[in-house]
Structure formats: C-alpha cells, structure tokens
Amino acid sequence: MTKKHLQKLWLFLISGLAITTITVLACGGGDWDGTEGSMFTPEIINQPKYKPFFRTQATPFYDGYDDASAGIFKEQNIKDWMTYLGNNLSKEAVNYWLYEASLNQIDSMIFDIKKKPATLTSKSQSYSLKTIQPENKATGFLYFVGFAKRNENFVAKEINYWGDEPKKKETVSIVKQIAGGVNFLAKATDPFMKERYAFQLERLYFFNKDYTNTIKVYKDNEAIFKTEDNLKWRSLSYCAGAYYKQKQYAQANYIFSKIYDNFAPLQKSAYLSFHPLQQADWNECLGLAKSTREKEVLWQMFGLYNDYVTAIKEILKLNPKSEMADVLLVRAVNIEEEKFTGIEGNDLSKQKDLSDKIDKSLVTFLNEMSANNTTNNPVIWHLSAAYLNYIKKDFSTGDKQIKLAEKYSKTTNIIKAQYHLISIVGKVSRITELNPKAEAELLTDLKVLFKDKMEEAFRPDAARLWIRSTLAKLAIQKNEHDKAEMIFNGVEGKRFEKIENLKSMIAYWDKENKSEFEKLFSEVSSLTKFNYQELLGIRYTQNDQLEDALRTFKTIPKYNNELLGNPFTIHIKDCHDCDHEAKQNKKYNSISFVEKLIEMKGMATTKPAEAGQNYFLMANGFYNMTYFGNARYFYNNKVNNSGYYFDEEAHSGEMNCDLALKYYLLAKEKTTDKELQAKCTFMAAKCEQNAFFMNKPKSYKGDFKAGIYFAQLKKEFNDTKYYQEIIKECGYYRKYIGR
Prior knowledge:
Elements: H1 3-14, H2 69-84, H3 91-100, H4 103-113, H5 122-126, H6 135-155, H7 174-187, H8 191-207, H9 211-220, H10 231-245, H11 249-262, H12 267-273, H13 279-288, H14 292-305, H15 308-318, H16 326-337, H17 351-355, H18 360-372, H19 378-391, H20 395-406, H21 413-429, H22 436-451, H23 461-477, H24 481-487, H25 499-509, H26 516-523, H27 529-542, H28 546-553, H29 576-581, H30 590-606, H31 611-624, H32 658-670, H33 674-694, H34 708-716, H35 721-729, H36 731-737
C-alpha cells in the first residue's frame, strides 16, 4: 500500500465516514500478515467475535480492513422492503428498484402506477410494481427510493485515491434534500417509512456538517429506530460521529463502545472511531456506563488501543470471570514475543539479551493471576505465564505454570497443541548441550510438533523454525555439522562450497545407526540425500572434475535438470531470454551438458588442430553455468538455495568466472585464427569485468573498470571483423576507447 493511500485512508477514518462502513482494498505484495515469528496462537481463547482484534503488525485488524458490512446492510435492506411490500415482489425485483433502476425509471413507474404516460424499459416492466396493493404503498416506496438515490450524491461519495477521475457535477443541493427530508419525515405516518426517512435526514445533516441537528434528529426519533440488524445501529453511529465532531468525546466514545459490543457489522468501524483522548474525557466516559458489562467493554477497547495491562487489571477488578480480558491477554503475549522471536531470536548469543526485554511487570501479573486460578478461562493464563517465563529464562516458574496448564491440556485440539509447543519451548530454551539425554527428553514433544496434523489456526511454523535453529546451533557448538544440517537445512550454507563437506553429509544420510532423534529430523527434512548429491555434482563441475560430476549426477534417480538455453552459445551482449527462446536442435540437461564438456575436452587433446575451438566452446559452457550466463539453472539446487539475483557477498562457483577465463585463455593460446583469438580476448574481458563486479569497492563511482583484456583488444585485434562488432554492441568498450 502506498504512503498516499495510507494518508487517504486516515483522512477517511477521522472524517467520520468510519462510522458507516469500512471498505478498503487490501494491499498487494505477498502473503505477509503480520503474525510471522509468532508461536502463540490467540485462537486458544475460543472467542471468534474478537478475532479481528488479535495481534498483527500488518494492519489494525487480524483479518484485514475489508469487512462485509456493506453487503450485510444491502441484503437486510432488500429483505426489509420485501416484507414491507407484502412479499409480492421477488428479491431480484426489489434489488433492481433499490440499487439498479435510474431516477428516470423510478419516475416512469410512478406514472405507470397512476395510469399516466410512462416510458419503461423491458426490465422495469418485468419488475412492475402495479400489483402492489394498496397503490400508495408502491408509490411511497418509489418516492423514498428516488429521495434516497439523490442523497447518495452527498453521503456515499466514492473515494478517489489517485485523483484521476472527473468529479460528478451535482444537480441537487444538499440543503434542498434536507428540506425535502424534513417534509417527508413530517408527513410519514407508517413507522417503517418514518424510520427510513429519519435515517436519511440524519445522514444528510451529518454530511452537511450540521452536527447539532444530526443529534437532534436521532434523539427526536430514537424510539422509532427498531430495525435491530441495520438502521438502529447505523443511526446511532451517526449520532456518535456527530458528538465526536463536536468534541464531546466522552459521549461519542461511550456510544461507539455500545455499537462495538452489540452490532458485529459495525464493530471494526466503531473501534476505529473510538478515541480516548484526555483523562478527564475517559473518566467521564466511564461514568456514562450503565452496567458492569458496559465498563468492561470500554476497558477492553481502551486496552486494544493503548495500555493493555492496565485494561486487563481493570476488567478483572470489575468482573474476575470476565471473558473480555482474554483477547487483551493474548495480544499482550503476542506483543511480548515479538521482542524475542524472529531472526535475532534464532541467535543463541543474543537470546539472553532479548529475554531481558520482556515486560517483567506483565510476567509478574500473569504469574499472580495464574496462581489465583479465578479467571473465566484459567488455561490461557497458565499457558501465557509459562510461555513468557520460559522466554525470560525463568524455568522454575515456567515449569510451575505449565504444570497448572497440564490438566486442561486436552480441553480442545488447539489447547493441546499449544500446550505441547510451550512445553518444548521451555525444554529447548534451557538446553546448554545437545546430548543423547536431552534428545530423548525432547523426542515426544518434537514428534507432536513436527508430525501431528495441526488445526489451521495453530502457529507451528515459527516454533519449528526456532527449535530447528536453536538445536542446530547447539550441534554446531559440538562440531556436529552434519547433524546440524539435518536438523535445520541450510544452517551453514557456505559449508557446502567444499566438496569434502558434501561427501560427509551424503555419508551422514546413509548412516545406518541413526538415533530416533536423527530419524525424526531426516523424516521431516525438506531435503533428501539426492539434493546433496546434485550439489556435489555441481561442485565437481565447477572444479573441472567432470568425470566425477557425471558419475555423481547419474546416481540420482530420474535426474533431468533441463537447461533452458544452449550452454555453448555466447554473445557480445548477454541475452538470456533470447537464448531461452531460440530454437535448439539439441536440448541439454545437466548430464548431457557435462557429457559434452567431457567430449570436447577429449577432442581438444586428440585433435590438436581443433583444440582452440573446443576449448572456446568449453569456456562458453563454464561461463554460461555461472550467474552471468544463460544456463543458471545448472546450479539450481535446494541445498545451495542460490537465486538468480546478483549477490556481491557470494563467492562460490555460481558467481565465479575463473574456470571460464582459464579455458578462454587456453583456447586463445591453441588457435591461430585471429578472429577466434579476438573472441577469446573479449570473453576474457567479460570474465575480468564480472570479477570486478564481485569485488567492486564501495568508493568506486564508475559503471565498469577496464582491465588488461580491453587493452589487448585495442592493441592487438583492432583490425578484426569481431572488433568492429564489439564496438557496435558493447557500450563499455565504446566508452573505453572514447567513442
């Protein structure tokens, strides 16, 4: 979401429109939802009503901004009118007249009912109201719809985020509409119609910024607002918005809290409109509450906005069994765990410092509440206290709390899963050495976390990541590098740049006497032995050990890593997509590519006259299998996890053109063809330039740095045809020679 979009949204909310409905498009850009890194599942409170207010760092609401209120209001409105019209019209017909018919067609239907000349479309005729009796009920409906449609010009304007659509020219003034609304309301005798005209008039006053009359219309007609699932609460929300605009914050916040607690479709917008400002306003607002329940609601909303700990305490003072503290509790835990989880939380050296950041006063309070065991839902307090104590590395207290939770641990599947997760967090957090005893103690809980089927709401992913990372680093401390990799694939990625380490890891996969602990992680590993064998074949190739590479690739069942372009094709200006799209007489995969390299190397030896050309083609192959060439898919491997983006920090074979440079220079040496020598020299220059890119000093300002091979081209090959092609296509070289 752009900054401009967010600013527009904020203006939208504080302008008072938030009291009607929230319909904001979600931002594009991935699946990040603001709960990444969390190991504590708020759904354990089993209160779906408060799910939108679970903790997320992405948006104010757990399920995003968009809600269904507009659709709910529309459906209810159609249903209400169908009932009012005696169920003599279909849902489609009522929807047509309320939301689709033009003002012209509405007027024409009134004329038709009154037996006056009318111009009706075929659709309007198919949804005729002439059968509705008495006649004035049908015309009354149409008069109201016409009035309401004209009001939409003022009360439901489309928000123009980008400022690129023409403004609609208004043909009716809001003052005139208000006058009409006053007249219609005064004449209305039917309670149903009176309620709707009062709502329309209230909205008009609000959007005309006449907040005094907004409130007056509501109060004068409060008794007639009876549509519980629609107009009653929507009318009340405009009244609250008017109080807010008049800076009567206590009254506004109190009303918003009633809407929040009693009318789900406007719960989110009531929350966004609720703004406790000064202490005096807040005290006054609390004084307006007419019951303990209303005070609990106010404190819950206060806690969602601000001081959740104070809010929890105040709610429990009012009602020790209140369920309204639960959502604030799980929010508090999620907020605290954010200090510990994430990338830094996987660093053993930083865990003590991170655990010290946990709010000690909150943990003390949770311990007290857990021990008292007087709350509505004791297990969530026991689990919360246990979790934060374990993070804080107070294992003794954490153990007491998890013991209290144990008798509730099978209450629901999600409680059971959360209990096991927190138990293992406590066990893993205190391990200082990964030994057979520690592994055996963890095994049961690890199997639950890694192998059991979990409920969708449960959050095992961050826990699995944290546990894998922590255990792997404990294994590394004992120099058990293969075990560490099995526990947490990729924990030491650079280690597998060396062939001997890959061989060791493959042997570890083949180890017959694995412990139950090792078997578990091999079973849940995202990688297999074949992934390491593939990387071994890649490393052999990058080290010019081609026979070993071929033998290794052939040990992988059904191995067919197709290369998209011809790896032996080369250009002055690299164009990978061009090579991938070009027609290829022969499609290469990793195995056939290596086989061809071996064949060319043999021919270079047995046919010296062709050595230059064969070495040149080999060099092209070695160049193309790097990041800079058209056969990057050659090094595509899950262990290596090398992407196809430029990485200045990488120094493995993926970014290294040394082998290609070696063979370009060998090809140049073995040929007498000056054109081929020019090609070899230019490609050597590209290899030289790529090495510069990989080690470019931060202080260097230029795009490139000419080396020895640009100089050789200029001095020795300026009379070749290829030299002219270089000048035509290579901007770097033109810049070098001053053209």
